[in-house]
Amino acid sequence: MIRLLNATEEGNIDGLYAAIGENPHIFDQIEEIPFADTPLHGAAFAGHIQYAMEIMRLRPSFARKSNQKGFTPIQIAFQKEHIQLVLGLVDMDSDLVQIKGREGLTPLHYAAENGNRHLLARFLSVCPKSIGDVNIRNETALHIALKTNKREAFEFLVDRLHWDCHEEARYWEKRILNRKDVEGNTVLHIATSRNQPHLVGLLIGRGIDVNAKNVYEQTALDIAEINRLHEISHLLRDVGAARASSLSADNTIAFLRTDQRLNMAAEQGDIIALYSIIREDPYLLERIENASFIDTPLHISASKGHTQFALEIMWLKPSLAKKPNQDGFSPLHLALQNEQFQTVRGLLDADRNLLSVKGRAGQTPLHYVAERGNLDLLTEFLRAYPKSIQDLTIYKETALHVAAKKDMWEAFGVLCGWLQLTGQNAILNCTDDEGNSVLHIATSKNQIEASCPPGFLQIFQEMSRLFHAHETLYLLRFVFVMQAVKLLIGGKVDLNIKNMNGNTALDVLYESQTQMMIRSKIRKILCRAGALRSSSIPHTTTVADNLSKKRTGLEIWALSRYREKLIMSDQNRNAILVVAVLIATATYQAVLSPPGGVWQGDPTLLFPNTDSQSRYINAGAFVGRPVMFDLLPLVWYLFSVLNTAAFILSIGIIYNLLPRRPLIVLPLVIPLFLCYGISWYAVQTGGINLFIVGVVIVAILILLFRGFIAWFQKAWRDLVKLMAHNPKI
Hints:
By secondary structure, the chain is an all-alpha fold. It folds into four domains: 2-247, Ankyrin repeat-containing domain (Serine Threonine Protein Phosphatase 5, Tetratricopeptide repeat, Alpha Horseshoe); 256-346, Ankyrin repeat-containing domain (Serine Threonine Protein Phosphatase 5, Tetratricopeptide repeat, Alpha Horseshoe), CATH 1.25.40; 358-538, Alpha Horseshoe (Serine Threonine Protein Phosphatase 5, Tetratricopeptide repeat); 556-725, no CATH class. 62% of the residues lie in helices and 0% in strands. The longest helix has 28 residues, at 688-715.
């Protein structure tokens, strides 16, 4: 240790390494002492710059360590006026500008106290936020410069603060200027008490709060008038400053942060105040957007029903409409919860995609209105964003699951009708996280909740006059469940889906506590539709069985074609459609203009040696008939079959590749086939029978192919589903 002390006093780097060689753990031993004079403290005291840099490189943590008197190395260097050493330390670690030593003083505080503008500029350039650091008396560098009469340093700090905050946020400048020390004095109080009208004017121009009060309940104007500082009094009064005694309690709003004032404006729906705050703090909405979970002004205004204010915020910052608050709700969810339906409609008019935004538990607005049974909003949501019916909660529930579990049967009926109307009946077979489809839920209902739909309440009142209460309850249960089951069966729901417990809907019905009469009726309906108990369902192959099963060449071909269709790009699909259309056009044209042409001309040239009557009779059988039919009949028969097959297959490819095939293609395909047949009849006098035979053969082949596809999809159903969800496997 003696050798290290000597090397530090002399600034001898060789001596330093000699000491380390003698005791490699010497730095660790010093590090373990909470407060100690490290070699870096000694170098800072002596002003050995290179030695200090070497120590800093070997053990950077020494620069942050306080000695027994509470001073860090950089503070000691300041005290000894070793400015180059200070700059060297800051160059190696810019964070040292914010390291606090004794009394919470930072290097920036020392520079302000000394009035060293060069150091102030250097420190703020490497660490601009250090201007907000305070000591144990809650003083910033501005307070210190002003209290030590370093006027130029103070002006520099005020100007630099304004310059640094120009592009970031003006609110930061006001927060620093309005910072109060332990006595509640801002720099305006101090400048006033020191009779510095120039500095008071400078601070007023930077937007400082002229009515801030210190712990003695004095504003800057109070101090000016008590000390008879007339020039400063005039400056303060010109900008609306007041004495503390004349300030009302409502004036406290002036001391609120801009985000707090914005929230107050949102609660009141005050658009004018909104833009006043934005003018004061242009980056406020950006900071709100960057916060992870927060009640934004859009959340507040939506929950209060201030539609115009909410739309104004949404126009300024659209992303806030999809932002969840601390409770996991978006603005649209809050508007629904507070029954602010006009605001709900206004938000959706601005952006329909908000219906896909999920809140707590993954619920979308459609789930919410289905749970509450609001039929008007339910239909509006479905029309505005049809895909929302496919959204699932974290429990894998569709809106149908939610409506069924909450006994909202009218909403359930609306949703089922929408699925049938839009051809999305496959959603009826979706299962929740317990494997239950909506049919499982409907058959398991064994009580009527208090939330009966309004239409059924009238039925309940009428039936109560004729039956006892418990009988009415059973009848209502029968009406509810029967309606739901019939809707699902009509929607072609899979009656034999098993849940996680291996039960079908029929199993669930048998296990439920539903009244016997109702259970018997529902069982008959389900059995009539083909429902089975799990024990009666034949064993079905699993995905693992299908993957391990040996496949034939035809099955491999079918799987590869199906996979190609799944991964086919739009560009390739369009190319195939173009080729298919060209082939259909060419084959249709071949009917109108067969190869070799048709017989035509004067009947006297065709039959010169016959009488006039026979000539015209014979000519009628020849004119318009294909020449190849008479000269090469076998070739003509082959051409006819192949041309017809090419025409039908090309139409089939077009039908298969176009979306929504039945609605778009069938009205066009049927007349086209009729025209094709009529054209064959016109050019094939006597050959129509062959055409019919050819068409029948091609139709049989197509039916056989379609039958194979249907068998393939049924036999390999699980594998096909796996490929559909993972098309690139």
